[in-house]
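Exercise 3.2. Students should predict the tertiary structure of the chain below and write it as structure tokens, then compare their answer with the key that follows.

Predict this chain's 3D structure.
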Amino acid sequence: MPYFCARLLFLSLVDDGRPISDCTCEYSFFIVAADTFKDAFEEAVSVGKREQLDYLNCDGNQVRWVLKAVEELRELGTELSGIEVGSLFDRQRFDEPVSFDVTFDPTATKPTTWTRKQLET
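Answer key:
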């Protein structure tokens, strides 16, 4: 069964008594297994709905993280190792300007890591 990458758009809605003109959003990437794009879409919606969250913020306002859309479905195939599941463009700021031919050492980075157990708590 092939895998798909689903890019989901979540919105953070805060009930502070005012109409909402803008809000924080999060793009999350999930891998789902499905036989067809239709099945992958339905599974992505199901996953997204399970991820929705309600809580009170530090100001005592109700906050809702809600699934707004399944923005993209990408068929990945059956082998996942080395497959790009998504990307976001952003801006990188440097403390000091760098030259065009600068060399970076990605082996010196210390990525944030999460285990499934940590994510489930």
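Discussion points: The longest strand covers residues 62-77. Helices lie at 37-51, 116-120.
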